[in-house]
Amino acid sequence: MNIPSELKYTKDHEWVKVEGDVVTVGITDFAQGELGDIVYVDVDTLDDMVEQEEVFGSVEAVKTVSDLFMPLSGEVTEFNEALEDEPELVNKDPYGKGWMIKIAISDASQLERLLDAEGYKELITG
């Protein structure tokens, strides 16, 4: 299972990549594996301020629909439009081309509450 060490993680299986004031968010390799084949990604919060742990969208797989939770409070500034035509990118490349949103974070101190790779690994392996 792929858990890149440079990323931060949430207990809800989102990953966070910090680049200055901009944060890229997606779901983890574990999450996409549990969901199965992803057929649709819905993000209706573009240009909205969304609080940490609120729903920013959803992922639809063949057998289930799962909410996506904001890892950090901030404004959703970008949606990965490639997912509209190729939602399977989330399955193929969850940490790369399968990213979902970018956020302008409003409270950098929230980063301290996210899990590191080791903490996330413990969460999913018990």
Tags for this model:
alpha+beta, OB fold (Dihydrolipoamide Acetyltransferase, E2P), 126 residues, single chain, six-stranded antiparallel β-sheet
Strand-helix topology:
Elements (H helix, E strand, L loop, with lengths): L7 E2 L4 E6 L2 E6 L1 H7 L2 E6 L5 E2 L4 E7 L3 E5 L4 E6 L2 H4 L3 H4 L8 E5 L11 H9 L1
Antiparallel strand pairs: 1-2, 2-3, 3-9, 4-6, 5-8, 6-7, 8-9
Would you kindly provide a brief summary of this structure?
This protein has 126 residues and is of the alpha+beta class. The protein has helices at 29-35, 82-85, 89-92, 117-125; strands at residues 8-9, 14-19, 22-27, 38-43, 49-50, 55-61, 65-69, 74-79, 101-105.
Distance between the termini: 14 Å
Q: Which parts are unreliable, with pLDDT below 50 for 5 consecutive residues or more?
A: none
State the total count of DSSP E strands: 9
Which of globular, elongated, flat, extended, rod-shaped describes the shape? globular
Number of helices: 4
The main pleated sheet reads as: 6 strands, antiparallel
> How would you classify the quaternary structure?
single chain
CATH homologous superfamily (4th level) name: RNA polymerase II/Efflux pump adaptor protein, barrel-sandwich hybrid domain
**What is the gyration radius calculated from CA atoms?**
13 Å
**Percent range for helical residues?**
10-25%
Mean pLDDT: 96
How does CATH name the architecture? Beta Barrel
Q: State the domain count.
A: 1
In percent terms, what proportion of residues is strand? 35-45%
CATH topology: OB fold (Dihydrolipoamide Acetyltransferase, E2P)
The chain-level structural class is alpha+beta
The SSE order reads: EEEHEEEEEHHEH
**Class, according to the CATH hierarchy?**
Mainly Beta
With strands numbered from the N-terminus, the spatial order across the biggest sheet is 1-2-3-9-8-5
